[in-house]
Design brief:
alpha+beta, L-fuculose-1-phosphate Aldolase
């Protein structure tokens, strides 16, 4: 692919990482990756570089076997989580492994993370992966990919989330939506009996949201502006 396209993807990974840090989806760890179109290569940040200071030049080029091809490593210890998802899901262009504090609560309490906000209709079935350890090996990564299956997100027990998208913008919005739905659900439990979205409402929302494809771009642009004003970008 053209050098300009690679440069744009590098910048988007940096922007997404910094914005997700601002929104507390990732912190001193967690990582965003993107697949270079038409290749078996991904861009991902180094293990030790601060998410708050990440630059486009910091990013590593890694193949789907986890081998470092370009950049100053080492790659994140959980790179296998990303590469396994990409191998299992040709439709996925971007992956985030984060540690959102509210979403993760629903892996350590006997309460499912059900959809309560209208944008969360696509997370009606949120699987929980049972492995509480770091996803370091190919076998562990493949197990996560099986748990994720065809979903846009899954929870990792006592750990965090895995979220996927067809672009960096879609990935970012999905990460934000998962955590905002979890936050709304947590707050709602203080008000009385829960009224989560029902199957017919989910079907109606899927049709409603499917009529327009501009939401990811709109939300992405909003947070880019918000991040610039906050000095994050």
């Amino acid at each position: 692919m053209a050098n300009g396209d690679v440069a744009r993807l590098r910048e988007q990974v940096v922007q997404c990482t910094r914005l997700l840090m601002m929104e507390q989806v990732i912190d001193f760890s967690g990582h965003v990756s993107v697949r270079l179109p038409g290749t078996d290569h991904i861009l991902i940040q180094p293990r030790d570089t601060s998410r708050a200071a990440l630059t486009a030049d910091d990013l590593l080029l890694v193949d789907l076997d986890g081998q470092l091809l370009e950049g100053e490593g080492p790659a994140p210890s959980e790179t296998a989580l990303h590469t396994s998802v990409y191998r299992a899901r040709p439709d996925v262009s971007a992956v985030c492994h984060g540690h959102p504090p509210v979403s993760t609560l629903f892996t350590i309490a006997d309460r499912p993370l059900v959809p309560v906000r209208n944008f969360a209709y696509r997370f009606a079935e949120m699987p929980v992966h049972p492995d509480t350890t770091h996803i370091r090996s190919r076998d562990q990564g493949d197990a996560v990919a099986r748990t994720l299956a065809s979903n846009d997100a899954c929870l990792l027990r006592a750990h965090g989330t895995v979220v996927v998208g067809k672009s960096i913008a879609e990935l970012f919005v999905a990460c934000i939506d998962v955590e905002e739905n979890a936050r709304s659900l947590l707050y709602a439990t203080a008000l009385g009996p829960l009224l989560p979205l029902q199957r017919d409402e989910i079907a109606q929302l899927a049709e409603s949201y499917g009529r327009a494809d501009y939401r990811a771009g709109k939300v992405w642009e909003h947070f880019l502006t918000k991040g610039r004003h906050a000095g994050v970008l």
